């Protein structure tokens, strides 16, 4: 997604209104990186000058806060390509606050970017939601470097261990709920390094992965069976 947004910015085609939903923590991290890139040309930089962050600290976010955001976004950026505002916990926006933001969505200032973050976009008024571009953030789509290294380590253990030790490794992985798709992809990568030797195991794993994508029931049992099949 980072590559996609970078290209939109370079092509001057970035929309002014976005809803990030699903994994709110991952969405917030991405939103801050996006605003940092607009200001500093660096996804790792923190936005400062032309950035406003609103988080629900009480029961709701009221119309006064929305009006302040509207005014902020109407001003000309001093450093960044855009004036950016992120509302974290947008489900807490009152109906009046949402209607106040609707004007920004319908008649956006020239250099404004508004991002609403919440777990379920259906919590917003349909009139507001329809004016925004929606982006789903999968909880496992943004994997920390530590998790990536863990997955590589687990994949290697599954391919080298045997018997009860191997079964315990698989059960621990499933219990810790690490991203299973990443593990299967890593197993395929490692098996693919010697396709002739691992042809049977690779074929079986690909077959079981296809079944898992077709049938979502008993996912834990399917995953355990798929991992146990790799020998």
Number of H- or I-type helical stretches? 10
Distance N terminus to C terminus? 35 Å
Radius of gyration: 22 Å
Query: What's the quaternary structure here?
Result: single chain
Instruction: Output the strand order for the largest sheet.
Output: 2-3-4-1-5
What is the class of the largest domain in the CATH system? Alpha Beta
Tell me roughly what share of residues is in helical segments.
40-55%
Largest sheet: 5 strands, parallel
CATH architecture of the largest domain: 3-Layer(aba) Sandwich
Strand residue content: 5-15%
Secondary structure class reads alpha/beta
Global mean pLDDT: 84
Spans where pLDDT lies below 50 across 5 or more residues: 140-146
Overall domain count: 2
- Write out the CATH superfamily name of the largest domain: P-loop containing nucleotide triphosphate hydrolases
CATH fold descriptor of the largest domain: Rossmann fold
GO biological process, one term: DNA-templated DNA replication
InterPro entries: DNA_Rep/Repair_Clamp_Loader, P-loop_NTPase
Protein name: DNA polymerase III subunit delta
Organism: Candidatus Harrisonbacteria bacterium CG10_big_fil_rev_8_21_14_0_10_44_23
